[in-house]
Each structure stands twice: as C-alpha cells, then as structure tokens.
Amino acid sequence: GRRDCKLCCLLVAGMLQVSGMRIYTHGNVEAVNGTDVRLKCTFESSAPINPSSVVISWSFRPLKPGREESVFHYQQKPYPPVDGIFRKRVSWAGDIMGRDASIILQQVKFTYNGTYICQVKNPPDVHGAVGEIRLRVVTTASFSELLYLAFAVLGGILVVVFLLVVIWSCRRCKKRRQGQLEENVEAAPRKERKDPTAW
C-alpha cells in the first residue's frame, strides 16, 4: 500500500521533471561599461521544437527595488523593446532550432546592473524553471579577466613558437636526409669497384 504509493509518486515526479522545459544560463556575467555582452540562454524541451510556436521572453529586475522590465520578446521573429532603458540596445543572438535563446546587450551601462530572466515556452511544454543571469557592469575588466586574457595571448604566442620550431626542425631533418642520400648515391659505385666479389 504505502510503498506502492511512494513508488507511484516518484514515477509521476520523474515524468513531470522529464516533460518540463529546462533552461541553462551562466549565473554571473561581468561586462565593462560601454561594451557589448552576450546573455547566453539555452534550453531543452521534451516536445519537438516548432519554430512557429516557441515563445521567448527576457525580463530585467534591477538591483534597486523597482518594477521588472521587459527586455526582449521572440515569437516567430524578434521583438526588441520600443521604449525603456533597453530601447535600441538589444539584439537577437539565438537560434530556435539550435535551442539557443541568447541575446546581446549593446553598449551596457551601469543602470543595466541586475538580474536578467530568460523564459522559454514550447507548447505543450510551457512549464519549467526560468534561467537567471546576474549582470555586473564594471568600469574596467577585473583582474581575473585580464589574467585570463594574458594567458590566452601567451598561450597563442607559445603555440606559434612551437609550430615554427617544429617546421624548422622538419626542414633541417629533410635537408640532412637529402645530404645523406646524395652521399650514399656517390659512395655506392665506389664500394662496388672496391669489392666486386663481396657476396
């Protein structure tokens, strides 16, 4: 009785979880004032993706107490906001069939600090958690970002140096081999003349 009921509840909960919309976002994003930033939001749906029925909504909750504001809407085509602080500052960067609902905020300002909420509906799959991204707009890149950039540049330089060394070594080996082959070709007839009875 009770054990069967628990098992049944677990199965139903599992089915609900599988059939719900799943949304994936990067929790915290940092952007330098005046630059563009991509707010990445991807999704998984148990229902087949139908581009004509997928609805994507992005909204913004500021750090200071205030009302939630619409940032972007997508339904068959992108609908950027016509007024508010995001007017002419948001562009579509997603791909419905690629399960990508990302947007780009252009020339971010300090007033953009806050939480961005990504919601995707793919009927009949309309229930599920929303994705949240906390954006922090800063004056300059943080030390960790600068360090990451420095390592990336250094890594790129090292790869180029390594490739040049490999190419140089290969050419040197090839020249050495060619030299040895030429010596062997010249030396071979002499050896035959010296010892024609060798067998």
UniProtKB/TrEMBL annotation:
Does the entry feature the keyword Transmembrane, yes or no?
A: yes
Compartments annotated for it: namely: Membrane
Q: Where is the Ig-like domain?
A: 34-139
- Topology in the lipid bilayer: Single-pass type I membrane protein
Ranges that cross the membrane: 146-168
Source domain of life is Eukaryota
**UniProt xrefs under InterPro entries:** Ig-like_dom, Ig-like_dom_sf, Ig-like_fold, Ig_sub, Ig_V-set, MPZL2_Ig-like_dom, Myelin_P0-rel
Q: Which Pfam families match?
A: V-set
Cellular component per GO, a single term: plasma membrane
Name the SMART domains on file: IG (SM00409), IGv (SM00406)
The UniProt keyword set, sorted, is: Disulfide bond, Glycoprotein, Immunoglobulin domain, Membrane, Signal, Transmembrane, Transmembrane helix
Where does this chain mainly localize? Answer: membrane
Signal sequence bounds = 1-20
Which Gene Ontology BP annotations are present?
cell-cell adhesion
Q: Per the similarity annotation, which family is this?
A: Belongs to the myelin P0 protein family.
State the PANTHER family in the record: MYELIN P0 RELATED (PTHR13869), MYELIN PROTEIN ZERO-LIKE PROTEIN 2 (PTHR13869:SF21)
What is the protein name given in its UniProt record? Answer: Ig-like domain-containing protein
